[in-house]
Amino acid sequence: MQRRGFLKTSLGAAVCVEGRFFLLDSGSPNTLRAAGAARNLLVGSAVSNSQLHSQALDSFLAEQCNIVGPEAEMNWDEVHPERDRYDFAAADELVAFAAKNGLLVRGHTLCSHEDQPSWLETVATRDNAARLLVEHIRTVTGRYAGSIHSWDVVNEAIEPGDRRSDGMRESMWLKLLGLQYIAIAFHTAAEADPKALLTYNDYGLEGDAPENDQRRVVALALLRWMRTNRIPIHAVGLQSHLTAGFGPRPDWHGLHDFLKQVAKLDLQIFITELDIDDTDFPGSGKKREKGAAELCQQYLENVLRHPQVKAVMTWGLVSHNSDGHHALPLDEELQPTPFLTAMLDALQKR
User: Fold this and answer.
1) Does domain 34-349 have CATH number 3.20.20.80?
2) pTM, 2 dp
3) Which residues are known to be catalytic?
4) What are the start-end ranges of the E strands in 38-156?
5) How confident is the model over 210-249, as pLDDT tens digits?
């Protein structure tokens, strides 16, 4: 079968990718969903609501994934665009799609330094910031209580480049509330949805460079502070935006040490936003695809050595060129890429 036949087939049909046959039946061992389930892993993707309107992508999600999450549809500026108005239409659509197809949902994100509506920074003060944060988190998590597998409660709270002695990001929330904003966010989410797993999510924790080492040190300090102060956290999200280019591949030693320390804190690990920027990978398109796939497989084989890794999610399904080329399971024509093969191989080797 040619690659263009992919996703036009019915359930149970086969597709050949790089010499491998994939059966598009969620009960098949050759789906990401089944390979993950056999190894106690959730496998899925972030998805935008516009993609939910594509029959081909709907089929892929339902057949290959057992968990989905929003790209932006649950961010503060999307669901709470005005001080006294919430808009849950897009988030509701995603949750309904997941329920219809038997998929779990990860919520992203309740508190971040980005994606804040313009009114918030105008209105927020030291006196009312805690109340604003509690109201928002209570409203959003309360609406979906019982329907969400896990929430990214706080996103990207560290930034050594801001040159604070503690390595934390100089966000609006930190300036107004200090570190207590993290405690407030997690406690509020736990009260509003006791069944959801609560996650701290961040980037730059995977590589071998000195800045990655520094970010891991700061992240561990934050996680230990949370544990010491009995803040209800269950998991750490590794965004895993990787780069395939010139130079040697990472040896992952720093990442392995980090994951071992996280395990000592009794925290799960979710890979939340996996993609690979292969813009600068030398060679043709096919060579670039192969390089990205090799890096994907190597990375996953390394992290999956750690039993506390419980989920693998990509940052979207479709490779794109919006800000450089980012490799993902499908190409721009919705045909499977070597990245998909690499994911399946890594899952099956766990």
Assistant:
1) yes
2) 0.91
3) 156, 273
4) 42-47, 67-70, 104-112, 150-155
5) 999 999 999 999 999 999 999 999 999 999 999 998 778 8
